[in-house]
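Researcher: Structure prediction, please.
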Amino acid sequence: MKNVYKPSIEAILFAIGGAVEESRLLAALGTEEEPADKKAFKEAVSELIEEYDSEDRGIRLIELDGKYQLCTKNEYYDVLAKIVNMPKKHVLTDVLLETLSIVAYKQPVTRAEIEKIRGVSCSHAVNRLVEYNLIAEVGRLDAPGHPILFGTTDDFLRSFGISSMDELPDISPDKIEDFRKQAEEEAGIEVTT
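Model: Predicted structure follows.
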């Protein structure tokens, strides 16, 4: 049986271009008198994902933390770059990756908290990650000076190929202990926990 939602979902996602929340899609597919069938919606999305994942397609449908988006498959980036004036891929240095990891695991987090963990100034790294749209301001801390709170973005999820923050790998206590010892050696100090 053909799923009646598939063409509508595809049309909406194509027209919008960005990520669209599931709730907005369901609202668009239903009416006040007859709300959209969530099970049929999920089936339609699964079918579309499977169809787009086939090798003969240049686009794919991705889920980003309860949102859906049509996007180009990564392997076609070079072809697109020839026809579209696309920005260069961002290079993430060790400093940027370290800062991004802190934001990802501790969010929402202030610049001062990041600096406390890293032990050095992080203004450049935070500014660069905001420029790359991997992190963004998500609010203000209710404290003196109301420092900015940072969190990851949909572009972060897209860039790392994950659907939600729940897919980030857990850090084992052994790894944390290794990190503490490494930090102690590098700084020449002893950290008490």
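Model: The two ends are 60 Å apart (CA to CA).
Researcher: Thanks, that helps.
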